[in-house]
Design brief:
7 strands, four-stranded antiparallel beta sheet, alpha+beta, single chain
């Protein structure tokens, strides 16, 4: 077996697992840390997919590959569907697990893990909570004496616009809206007794933040 053939076999062997990992992370938005961890998961899923498709693989090797049907000048159209199970099965499985994890289904948590996020930052923001964030900046001259209060959740138009970066990107945070605060980091209330929105979004880097207080409700 040549080097090219060995490489091709390796790619084909690991492709189902790679498709599963891609599909699952595409739905969850969670990229797990560590090359070794991801390699182990995609290898395990690839092995399971090849085990499930073993009868099809045996038929391809015995009745298609060894008989030379693929080396003919015109490959029958009926054989073009052969790669589909190896591509669709892991992709659909990864998508289902990712969607199930987003909705916190028990079976998906068993397969994907209850806490797959590599950092506390990702664990909190990946589930898109709605909360007030009271942010203390390292620079006490910024904001209102170093304090910023923002809305992590839906903006005034009802869209979920707040965003937080995920692993392995640098931690930064976009708040859909901010509210007025005093120099002690307390809410400034309007005539209706509710916090006064500034109708201004804010992008802030973790490097500028000392700590964040999460206020639910």
């Amino acid at each position: 077996m040549s080097t090219f053939e060995a490489l091709a076999v390796t790619v084909v062997a690991l492709l189902p697992g790679a498709l599963y990992v891609f599909a699952a992370e595409r739905q969850t938005g969670i990229v797990r840390s560590g090359l070794a961890d991801r390699t182990l998961r995609l290898t395990a899923v690839s092995a399971l997919c090849h085990w499930a498709l073993a009868p099809l693989t045996c038929w391809i090797v015995a009745d298609v590959w060894r008989t030379g049907r693929l080396s003919r000048h015109a490959v029958p159209w009926s054989l073009w569907w052969l790669p589909a199970p190896y591509l669709l099965l892991p992709f659909l499985l990864g998508t289902a697990v990712g969607v199930g994890f987003r909705h916190r289904h028990r079976w998906a948590l068993v397969l994907y893990g209850h806490t797959p996020e590599p950092r506390a930052w990702d664990a909190f923001f990946s589930h898109a909570p709605s909360a007030w964030l009271r942010i203390r900046l390292k620079d006490s001259a910024a904001g209102n004496h170093g304090w910023i209060i923002g809305v992590y959740g839906r903006d005034r138009d009802g869209r979920l616009d707040s965003r937080a970066s995920g692993y392995p990107e640098a931690q930064d945070l976009y708040l859909a809206d901010t509210v007025e605060s005093d120099d002690q980091g307390r809410f400034v209330l309007g005539p209706d007794g509710r916090p006064k929105l500034r109708h201004t979004g804010l992008l802030v880097s973790w490097q500028e933040i000392s700590h964040i207080e999460v206020i639910r409700g």
